[in-house]
Amino acid sequence: MSKVDVLVRGGEVVSSAGVQRLDIAIDGGRIVALGQDIGAEARETVDAAGCLVLPGVVDAHTHPVYADDIERTSAAGAAAGVTTLLAYVGAFPSWGFEKAAVHEVVSRVIEDWQGRPVGDFGLHVAFDSVDDVAAEVPRLTELGVSSYKFFLAYRKRGMMVDDRALLAGMTAIAQAGGIVAVHAENGDGIDHLESQYWDRPDLPDSAFLACRGHLLEAEAILRVIALAQTTGVALYIPHVAAGSGMEVVELARRTSGVPVWIETCPHYLVLTNDEVLQHGALGKIAPPLRHDSDRESLWDAVAAGGVQVVGTDHAGRTRAMKAEGVNILQAPFGAEGIEHLLPLVYGLGVRTGRLGIERMVQVLSENPADIFGLSPRKGRIAVGADADLVLLDPGGTTRCAAEDHLGASDYCLYEGIELPGAVRRTIRRGVTIAVDGALVPGVSGGEYLARSGFHVRPIPRIDEVCDDLREIEVVP
């Protein structure tokens, strides 16, 4: 073999198929060879002995707005092995975007973000009840967008849609071969409960939890699956928090003829509603943190195939931002998480025996890449794929602490947790972008990833979830 740019030697390469000691030859940002004792001459040699070599993490759920921007969000992720992120954007003033034609907003975002982050990025586009979805989707498809989001909550923020608008949007997106993601909580029920307490300055933090109960999530999950079946659209339900929500998913999947992919987040796998009771708005996330039994149910679902993706829902906030409003109901939602994703799932999942490392690679890299049209370029260590790699030292230790954040959040929901394993190096398209939790100075160059819908690519078969929309017969 002729001279290559980079040779990663001696690591244990991990895929869903198993673990094997292999060298990796990289040239022009792509993997050009895999094998034992590759003899190529390299401009740079990386010693991976003693490390697990993982495909770069694909964080399928981020919000690089609020206190963070795309550069800072990507940097925070890179420190812990995230080489690709998918960000939610839309014509939402609450997210810092102007209220204009959605395709115009998205076009400007692509132009503005291109080349700025250290990792590569793609976009999910969110719609509200006044956006002309049928007119926007063809334009957005031309921009490389194939996944779209609707909210069944957040009326006060101008984001909530009703079932009629959701059905119309699902229909347009199904025709374009796209994926619909839905924030599944019953917004009318939540608003009814919150209206009784909205302006009370003495409101206990527990009221937030009482206004967003399990059934309000489980009901919405069942409803959106039924509506997806009605329209024949592929469905992705992000940030599932309730164990009862997973029971509903399994019930609906028995009769659903459309793919229903489920995402949960590390905070639902690790934390409980005690964070809200002890720390108030710092732990305010929607759906809310729930109970130990929910946490256990979600770990089981990740391991057994009920959950296909673990993404962060990263939304960097500061303590000052979280203190806004007269009570917890008026405080902003969200928490950081992108720089803890891999350490938490490895340390509290793989090393505790909750799931195998092969399954971890599936839910953090392979599945999100397959679902959202990033394969075969992303998500796997394979010849021809982008050389996105993470060197994870199983003998190292990671301590979660706000003082170490590369993102803007000055608090950490996982403060003080010590985890087995440490990310030693993150490589994006053959370029080292982070070493031992620190960003390489001067690195940038993240690319926008245009993606195609199911009208031009096959629907992936993942965890036995339905894989062919062409077999679905929708009866008017």
UniProtKB/TrEMBL annotation:
InterPro entries on file: Amidohydro-rel, Metal-dep_hydrolase_composite, Metal_Hydrolase, Metallo-dep_Hydrolases_sf
Cleavable signal peptide: none
Amidohydrolase-related domain ranges (all copies): 212-431
Pfam families listed in its UniProt record: Amidohydro_1
Record keyword Phosphoprotein present: yes
One GO term describing the cellular component: cytosol
Function: Catalyzes the stereospecific hydrolysis of the cyclic amide bond of D-hydantoin derivatives.
Protein name: D-hydantoinase
